[in-house]
UniProtKB/TrEMBL annotation:
Basic residues biased stretches: 41-51
Any one of the GO CC terms: cytoplasm
UniProt name for this protein: Uncharacterized protein
Region (Disordered): 1-51, 256-297
Keyword vocabulary terms for this entry: Cytoplasm, Repeat, RNA-binding
Length: 297
């Protein structure tokens, strides 16, 4: 009993079996095709050689089961083009890490490295290529992601771990840059400057100001960005060799900030006891302060 182990292209030996099984009632086109296939089969038989399979080759084969000898064998091997058989798996759980080395551009570019902590607590370096980098998701009602230029050293990223079941090799795929944080240093007429968080290596560099344009401020915060505000942003590569700029800038609020710096809705959510106290004196139906004792009896 033979069972196909992989679907797809038909193996050479199976072609021969089908060719031998053709009836004589086929049309002229069928006869011509049969003769050509038979001639090719004869050349293969005359040479007495088949394509040899080597270690690492991707192959298509049939599984032959012998119930008497209790042996299972792979038969009718056919060597396939590289990349046909997929042996890669993707971990369902997303991981986070920091870019330790940028990925080079071009075919000969070196792979980038992402430093992260494995679930067992060990620090690991996973390679990635520019093709593994994806743009961050678009903000609700805002601008689309702006990470087409890739990720830079020090950027915090989220990614999936890919693994090759044949070789055991692992690498980072579906790499998405996470937003940076900083404090608005100054605001001009059409642009401003952000001082990145001191612990954020990829947000423009420690102590180095990042420029942003007011047109890049998220909807809802336009016209409200001021000096001293804590903001969240993504880095966008500058055109024609210019310095990178901040895009998708929006204000963020932390519990440590005073309630006076927060919008009313956030202040009530984070500081419920800071709401203005209101009192109201009870009044009866006739407008008086209440019923006298014994009234209504």
């Amino acid at each position: 009993e033979e069972e196909a182990a992989r679907g797809g292209a038909v193996g050479h030996d199976e072609e021969e079996e089908h060719e031998e099984g053709h009836s004589d009632d086929d049309g002229g086109d069928g006869d011509a095709a049969h003769d050509a296939a038979h001639a090719a089969s004869g050349r293969r038989k005359k040479s007495g050689k088949k394509a040899a399979a080597h270690v690492g080759d991707e192959v298509e084969f049939y599984v032959h089961s012998d119930p008497v000898a209790r042996v299972v064998k792979a038969v009718k091997l056919r060597v396939l083009p590289p990349g046909t058989v997929v042996l890669q798996t993707v971990a369902a759980e997303k991981q986070r890490g920091v870019v330790d080395r940028e990925a080079g551009s071009g075919k000969g570019g070196a792979a980038g490295l992402i430093r992260h902590v494995d679930p067992d607590g060990a620090t690991a370096l996973l390679p990635f290529t520019p093709a593994d980098v994806e743009a961050p998701p678009a903000a609700a009602g805002g601008k689309a992601g702006a990470a087409a230029a890739g990720v830079a050293k020090g950027d915090a990223v989220e990614f999936s771990v890919m693994a090759d079941r044949a070789t055991g090799e692992r690498w980072a795929a579906r790499v998405v840059a996470l937003p940076h944080e900083g404090v608005v240093d100054s605001v001009k007429d059409t642009y401003g400057y952000i001082r990145p968080d001191r612990t954020d290596e990829g947000g423009g560099g420690a102590g180095k100001l990042v420029v942003f344009y007011l047109t890049e401020v998220e909807r809802g915060d336009q016209g409200k960005i001021d000096k001293g505000d804590t903001v969240q942003y993504w880095m966008q590569a500058g055109s024609r060799g210019k310095e990178p700029t901040a895009t998708r800038v929006k204000r963020v609020f932390r519990m440590k900030e005073s309630p006076g710096q927060m919008p009313d809705a956030l202040r009530r959510a984070h500081h419920p006891h800071s709401a203005k106290a209101m009192s109201r004196t009870a009044a009866g139906p006739d407008g008086t302060r209440g019923f006298r004792p014994g009234r209504g009896r």
